[in-house]
Amino acid sequence: MAEIIEMPKLSDTMTIGVIASWNKKKGEKVKSGELLAEVETDKATMELESYFDGILLYTAVEAGGGVPVGDLIAIIGKEGEEVSGILAEYNAKKSVSTAPAAPEAVAAPAASVAASAPAPAVTASPSPGLPASDNRVKASPLAKALAKDKGIDISRISGSGEGGRIVKKDIDNFTPSAGASSFQAVSGVESYDEVTVSQMRKTIARRLGESKFTAPHFYLTMEINMDKAVEARASLNEIAEVKISFNDLVIKAVAAALRKHPKVNSSWLGDKIRYNHHIHIGMAVAVEEGLLVPVIRFADSKSLTQISLEAKDFGAKAKNKQLQPQDWEGNTFTISNLGMFGIDEFTAIINPPDACILAVGGISQQPIVKNGQIVPGNIMKVTLSCDHRVVDGAIGSAFLQTLKSNLENPVRILL
Question: Do residues 328 and 292 make contact, with C-beta atoms less than 8 angstroms apart?
Fold first, then answer.
């Protein structure tokens, strides 16, 4: 008996999956466990395995086509098995369980719109017998456009048309005199590229749009002296098998601060606020198509080496589209670090369901006062974006003070 393959829900926010490629062609044998297709979700490209043995009898869409979650994408059955009856039965069951959606109005193609549009109005010549203003140049619209493109002063041209009107051939035949004022026209070609919005970019737009315009954001910025953190990192990397980054130090320091300020490690749920006892830190990673946020779980209980290994592994997987749904779900707080891109300071949009996100800038040398003397110091700016429904200014400020203390005295997070 033929088996129906439907689009699975491969992430918590997925509504449509795009078939990036088919690994099997219609008519080919398929074994259970074999790769059937690659599906682009809103967060990554996932492999879709077959759970059945048989022949790939039918595919609902070509590569590049989108299918809503739960809808038919393929049929696997015995060789020669007729699929028309299977499709009819499937569609009948689907129509009973789901009311048909109203057809969307389809916008007319640009060519059709242009064809049905009224012809452009033609500029009429002045009526005979009506005097024209002495300073008015009589010229056809086409002649004016050609003169402008060629950099010709149209007032210097004598018109051969009715009533001295300048027409196209007058522009084509015009040769500037030696002393005539003219300039070289600059020409170019207007061009652009249009790229279909990926499922990942659509989800980023939707989720962050909802966050920005539903959660009342406010921002707290603080400068942190990273002198001791710079020294501690250099000392650690002399003996550590895994190189520690400044981002690893920030993750560890944030996790320790969240343990002291649990109200920041929270989320708004409409009629209640959830205060999380566990600390799962989302680490924003830039990829070609947008932004992924893999989650370092129980970050407060992990060593710097463990955090570093996990962060490096997630970064590589994100860039290679190998992250799995469990890798990006469950964050309770998010860190977005653009310091490595030369950014000194910025504000970030809260990553739902978190109540806060920390934007981390780069470390730069600035003059500071130390023991009454002006000396160079390594300064890093951080900005905490807060959902005011959950976190108030005093709570956010206390959290930043603890974070500042942790990074300015890194021995506290190494214990």
Answer: yes
Q: Are strands 217-225 and 273-275 parallel, antiparallel or unpaired?
A: unpaired
74, 94, 71, 76: which is closest to 7 by C-alpha? Answer: 71
CB atoms within 10 A of CB 269: 10
pTM above 0.70, yes or no: no
Answer for the pair 375, 386: CB distance below 8 angstroms, yes or no.
no
Q: Of 217, 277, 280, 388, which residue is the catalytic one? A: 388
**How big is the chain, counted in residues?**
415
What would the DSSP string read from start to end of 205-233?
A: HHHHHHHHHHS-EEEEEEEEE-HHHHHHH
Catalytic (active site) residue 217:
no
Average pLDDT of the segment spanning 15-40: 88
Per residue in 289-322, pLDDT (tens digit) is 778 899 999 999 999 999 999 999 999 998 888 8
- The helix/strand/coil state of 186 is coil
| Calpha distance 256→298 (Å, rounded) | 11
Contact 47, 35 (CB under 8 A): yes
What letter represents residue 60's amino acid?
A
Please state the three-class secondary structure of 73-131 as a single string. EEEEECCCCCCHHHHHHHHHHHHHHCCCCCCCCCCCCHHHHHHHCCCCCCCCCCCCCCC
Task: Label residues 279-288 b or e (16+ Cβ within 10 Å = b).
Answer: bbbbbbbebe
* CA–CA distance, 80 with 128 (Å, rounded to integer): 82
